[in-house]
Amino acid sequence: EYGIVRPKGYTVSYHATPEMEKHHFGQTHPMKPWRLTLTKSLVTAYGMPFAMDNYLTREATYEELNSFHSNDYLDYLITAAPEDQPRDIDNPDKEVKFNLGGSDCPLFHGLYNYCSMSAGSSLDAARKICSNQSDIAIAWGGGLHHAKRSEASGFCYINDIVLAILQLLRIYPRVLYIDIDVHHGDGVEEAFFSTDRVMTVSFHKYQPDQFFPGTGALEDNGPKNEHNPGAHHAINVPLNDGITDEQYEALFKNIIGPINERYRPSAIALQCGADSLAGDRLGRFNLRVQGHGACVRYCKSLGLPMILFGGGGYTPRNVARAWAYETSIAIGADTRIPETIPEHTPWRAHFIHDTLFPSLEQSMHEPRHNRNSEKRLREIVAHVHEQLRFVEH
Ligand code: V1S
Ligand code: CA
Ligand code: ZN
């Protein structure tokens, strides 16, 4: 169907489980694990599973989660029940432990199972990359970049990305982490703050006190102490509302190209948060599916082993579009799949418009004003290039 065939001498693996998608954060919560079902339905309708190795994800073990997270935190996460939810009115004295149980990181039924499956998919992806059984491994259920060693944050409980990168570091000398979620990848940045074996690069909306999490200024480039090997190995690309495909793509290539040449990573971990798309419930950018996907295509063109993680994305129909399109880029079928969403796609009506590439007008009633000047974007690129002069090669 659609001439989708296995790429020759090239393996893409897809790591997922329908179990993960059954969990609910709560009625009003923006994070909808069901978006993974919608993504898989589109990937399948286009016939893409024929071109990949498809793995059913297992739960990560306690020991695996323990390679980054503390025992105290994991023990509480295992036992905390929805009844432990601190309630302001009923339970005024109840403390919020490890930032669990608030409105961002609620304690819901099956939470530990959800977390360990998300981490399991990212760990399986990393292991396929380490054993050379995959060239690109896809874990759309991962990408939960805000979780800290002993703290949940911003809908993230277990930092599957950190766990996966720790696996990659067993084999690969240097890992380049790239984060195109609209939010700052603070948890991953912090975890690898004092090593030069991981360089982290996050593109995000930056407006302290106005936009979560408020960190990731241009000048924050790792430890200020020059004797710390991690100095200059955190790159932040702070952006304003309304950035367009053209600007974002140029920025991405002008930043990732020189980083690749200077740092010479041996593997790439790419967080593909889809909340940077136009019309996202929480995001503020004007990216289209093509612009978001262009970042994945560019990373693929560098020819390094790569993991694609999910992340944010709060308008499920657009999340499914972006991740299905990016799956097609991974298998090299992006030029072959038709733009019209296949007739037999389950939940086809959810997509509202039948195209894989909605226009800005189809994504948003009123396209967002672009507050990114060319001058500011040039300054950002210049600052990053300046940082790279301090990176040894
Ligand atoms: N922006 C935003 C936002 N919206 C919510 C929210 C809304 C309704 C709910 F029922 C529950 C939560 N929380 C936030 C942000 C967290 C964003 C996390 C993004 C995660 C990711 O995409 O990067 C990766 C998966 N939280 C806040 O802004 C914090 C508050 C400061 C304000 C909102 N209230 C609900 C909590 C405290
Ligand atoms: Ca980001
Ligand atoms: Zn996000």
List keywords for this structure.
binds zinc ion; globular; 8 strands; Arginase, Chain A; binds ligand V1S
What does this structure look like?
- The chain has one domain (12-388): Histone deacetylase domain (Arginase, Chain A), CATH 3.40.800.
- The longest helix has 20 residues, at 111-130.
- The mean pLDDT is 96.
- It is globular.
- Helix 1 (35-45) packs across helix 9 (316-330) and helix 7 packs parallel to helix 11 (374-388).
- An 8-stranded parallel sheet has the order 2-1-3-8-7-4-5-6, with helices on both faces.
- It is built from 11 helices and 8 strands.
- It is of the alpha/beta class and 393 residues long.
- The structure holds ligand V1S, calcium ion and zinc ion (ZN).
- Calcium ion is lined by residues 179-181, 183-185, 202-204.
Strand proportion, as a percent range, falls in 5-15%
CATH architecture: 3-Layer(aba) Sandwich
Look at the structure and give the CATH class: Alpha Beta
**The number of domains:** 1
> What would the CATH topology be?
Arginase, Chain A
Give the topology string: H per helix, E per strand: EHEHHHEHEHEEHEHEHHH
Low-pLDDT stretches = none
Strand neighbour order, sheet with most strands: 2-1-3-8-7-4-5-6
Largest sheet: 8 strands, parallel
What is the C-alpha radius of gyration, as a whole number of Å? 20 Å
| Bound ligands, each once | ligand V1S, calcium ion, zinc ion
How far apart are the first and last residues' alpha carbons, in Å? 46 Å
| Integer average pLDDT | 96
**Bulk shape:** globular
- Backbone structural class: alpha/beta
